[in-house]
Amino acid sequence: MSNTTAAPPPDPFGWVDHGDNAWQLTASTLVGLQSVPGLVILYGSIVKKKWAVNSAFMALYAFAAVLICWVTWGYHMSFGDKLVPFLGKPNFALDQHSLLEQGFAGAYPEATLVFFQFVFAAITAILVAGSLLGRMNFHAWMLFVPLWITFSYTVGAFSVWSPEGFLNKLGVIDFCGGYVIHLSSGIAGFTAAYWVGPRTSNDKERFPPNNILLMLAGAGLLWMGWTGFNGGGPYSANADASLAVLNTHVCAATSLLVWLLLDDFFFTKPSVIGAVQGMITGLVCITPAAGVVQTWAAIIMGILSGSIPWYTMMILHKKIQFLKHVDDTMAIFHTHAVAGSLGGILTGLFAEPRLNKIFFPSDDVDKYIGLLYGLKDRRASAGLRQLGVQLAGILFIIFVNVTMTTIICLVIRLIVPLRLSEEDLQIGDDAIHGEEAYALWGDGEKFEKTKHNNAYNLEEFPSIAPVKAAQMV
C-alpha cells in the first residue's frame, strides 16, 4: 500500500476572499435585523395600541415580498445589464451557476451581493410604510410593495449604484444609501401618504406609543444594525469599512444629543421619542458620506442633522399648509428625505479626495472631491461640479419617486381602496386581522381566580374595583 497522499482537488472557488465574504454576509444580516425584528418592533410599539399588530405586520410582509421580487427580477433591474441609462434588464437571480460566480463588486459569489442588496431594498419599502401607519388598507399595501420595488426603487438603485447607471458615471457620491434608500423612502412615503389620506382626527390629535421601552429596543436594533448598513458599503472588510462604522456612530450620537437639547430647551422636557428621531436623522445624514469624510466632519454633520430636520419637523411643518395637510405618521419625510438630502449636500462639501480614491476606482481628477477640499487645493471648479452633481442626484430621485409613487397609488385604487373604511379605522387591528397585540383586560376578559392572581380579585380588594371595572369596559 502506498504511503503517498493524494493531492487535494483544485478549489473552484479559490478566488473567493473568505474574510470579505464573511464580513459581507455579516453586514447583510445586521441590516436585515434592522428590519426584522428592528422596525417590526419599532413600528409595533411606537403607534397607538389598536394599530400595533397591523403596523408590525406591514413591515414583516414587506420584508418577505421584497425578497421574492428581488430574486425573480429586481436584482438584475438594479444591477444587471443596462436596458436604459437608469434601469437594468429584468432577469432571474436564481441560477446556481451565476450566483456562484464573482459579481460586479467584491471577491465573493454574486449570491452574497444579491442578499446584501436585498436587505437594503427591503428596509426601503419598510421605511415607506412608516408614513402610512394607522390607515392604509393592508390589501393595498400588499400590492404597493412589489409595484414600488419594481418601478421606483430599481430606478434609483441602478442609476446611482450600478456601474452602468448614469448618475454613477456622472460621479454622484452615495456611499451606502442616502439617496437610494433614505431620500427615496422619504419622498415616496410622503407622496403615498398624500394619496392614501390622513388618519382619523382622533388618531392625528392623540397617537401615543403603546410601549416606549419596546420602541427603544427597536431603535437600538436600528442603530446597532447600521454597523452593517454603512460598514458593508465598501464591499470589503477594509480600512474604509472601519472608518465608515466609526463615523456612523459618531454622527448618530451627536445628532441624538443635539435633538435632545433642542427639545429640552424649547419644550422644557427631554423627549425619548425626540431622541430616537435625532438618532435616526444622524444615521441617515452620515449614510451617503460614511466612508469618504473624516470624523470631525461626521461631528459637524451630526450637529446639522440634529438641528435642521428638528427645525423642519417641529417648527416649519406647522407653518406650511401643504406639509400640515399630508399625514406622515412617522415623519419619514423629515427624518429620511430631509436628512438624506442634507447628507448628500454635506457629502458634496466634506468628501475627502484620498478617501474617495479608496472607495471609487476612478482616475478622473474632476470627480469625487468635496467643495471645501476643492477650494483648499485650488480646484474650486471640481468641488463646485461635485456639489452640483449631488444636487442633480437629489432632484432625480425626488422626480422618480413622486412620479412613480403617484402612478402606483392611482393604479392600486382602481383595484382596492387605498384607505381603510371609517369603521375599520375606529377599530384597528381586530377589524383588519382579527387579532390584537394586548388582550389583557380587553373585550371584557378577566383573570381566572387562582392563588397567583388574588391581587386582582375585586371582591377581596374593593378599593381597586372602580379602576379595574373601568379597564374591563
Automatic annotation (TrEMBL):
**Membrane topology according to the record:** Multi-pass membrane protein
Q: Does the keyword Ligase apply?
A: no
Q: What protein am I looking at?
A: Ammonium transporter
Q: Which residues cross the membrane?
A: 22-44, 51-73, 114-133, 140-159, 179-197, 209-229, 241-262, 271-290, 296-317, 329-351, 391-416
**Record's family?**
Belongs to the ammonia transporter channel (TC 1.A.11.2) family.
State the Gene Ontology terms under molecular function: ammonium channel activity
Q: Which InterPro entries match?
A: Ammonium/urea_transptr, Ammonium_transpt, NH4_transpt_AmtB-like_dom
Q: Name one GO cellular component term.
A: plasma membrane
The record's function comment reads: Involved in ammonium transport.
Instruction: State its location(s).
Output: Cell membrane; Membrane
Native source species: Phoenix dactylifera (Date palm)
Keywords per UniProt: Ammonia transport, Membrane, Transmembrane, Transmembrane helix, Transport
